[in-house]
Amino acid sequence: GKVVIATHNAGKLVEMRELLAPFGVEAVSAGELGLPEPDETGTMFAENAAIKAIAAAEASGLPAFADDSGLCVDALDGAPGLFSARWAGPNKDFTGAMARIEAELSKRGATDRRAHFISALVLAWPDGHTELFEGRVFGDLVAPRGNLGFGYDPMFQPEGMDRTFGEISSEEKHGVDWQSGEALSHRARAFVTLAAACLRRPA
Ligand code: ITT
């Protein structure tokens, strides 16, 4: 089978391709198909993921996967959350977006550094049927370190690790042990729930 990965984010696309590989489907990206980017008008991650997946499935006639994700900071009442991409602006300035998080925390005098990433993964079928899978990872915000990964990775240190998502390999960030279902990143964990819903382990 052939599926669409409905993202225009290069970092996400790499991860989603790697996460889909063991499922044995051929994946094409929304960019490769020239699909438009729908407006993310939802008020929840799951809603925005569905908007993107349904639009791609309708336009392509193929099943489509979309991820809507973000970094939720406890002391900022969950911001940037749904607006994680938008905080970086049109130039995708994540150095600026990470600095803004620090600025908002100091403005509030916040000492609580807890944050989590959420990934809502929606699979939409051309007939309009959708399935939702979610993953989360909890951790702490630190001064940005490392240039691996993308987005807010340099500033996020998962619980129990002394390195940030910007300092660990792609294998460590979103590698999955399909036997045990163990995975670290929010996105990898969403794919583990997808595999569980398939009632089988990918090869
Ligand atoms: P698409 O909608 O085309 O998929 P996007 O970048 O606009 O691309 P989102 O609307 O889901 O995607 O925004 C999520 C943002 O949250 C994303 O731009 C990243 O900055 C951040 N983010 C999500 N997952 C991340 C991860 O694994 N590591 C670092 N930052 C992440």
From TrEMBL:
* Organism (species): Methylorubrum suomiense
Sorted keywords for this record are: Hydrolase, Magnesium, Metal-binding, Nucleotide metabolism, Nucleotide-binding
Q: How does it assemble?
A: Homodimer.
Q: Which Enzyme Commission numbers does its entry carry?
A: 3.6.1.66
Family that this chain belongs to:
Belongs to the HAM1 NTPase family.
What this protein is called in its record is dITP/XTP pyrophosphatase
**Pfam (any one):** Ham1p_like
Question: Kind of enzyme, top EC level?
Answer: hydrolase
Q: Does the keyword Iron apply?
A: no
Cofactor(s) the protein requires to work: Mg(2+)
What is catalyzed by this enzyme?
ITP + H2O = IMP + diphosphate + H(+); XTP + H2O = XMP + diphosphate + H(+); dITP + H2O = dIMP + diphosphate + H(+)
Q: Where does substrate bind?
A: T7, H8, N9, A10, G11, K12, S69, F150, G151, Y152, D153, K173, H186, R187
Q: Which residues form the active site?
A: D68
Ranked from the top, the taxonomy reads: Bacteria, Pseudomonadati, Pseudomonadota, Alphaproteobacteria, Hyphomicrobiales
Query: What is the documented function of this protein?
Result: Pyrophosphatase that catalyzes the hydrolysis of nucleoside triphosphates to their monophosphate derivatives, with a high preference for the non-canonical purine nucleotides XTP (xanthosine triphosphate), dITP (deoxyinosine triphosphate) and ITP. Seems to function as a house-cleaning enzyme that removes non-canonical purine nucleotides from the nucleotide pool, thus preventing their incorporation into DNA/RNA and avoiding chromosomal lesions.
Residues annotated to bind Mg(2+): D39, D68
Q: How is the cofactor bound?
A: Binds 1 Mg(2+) ion per subunit.
Q: Does the keyword Kinase apply?
A: no
| Domain of life (superkingdom) | Bacteria
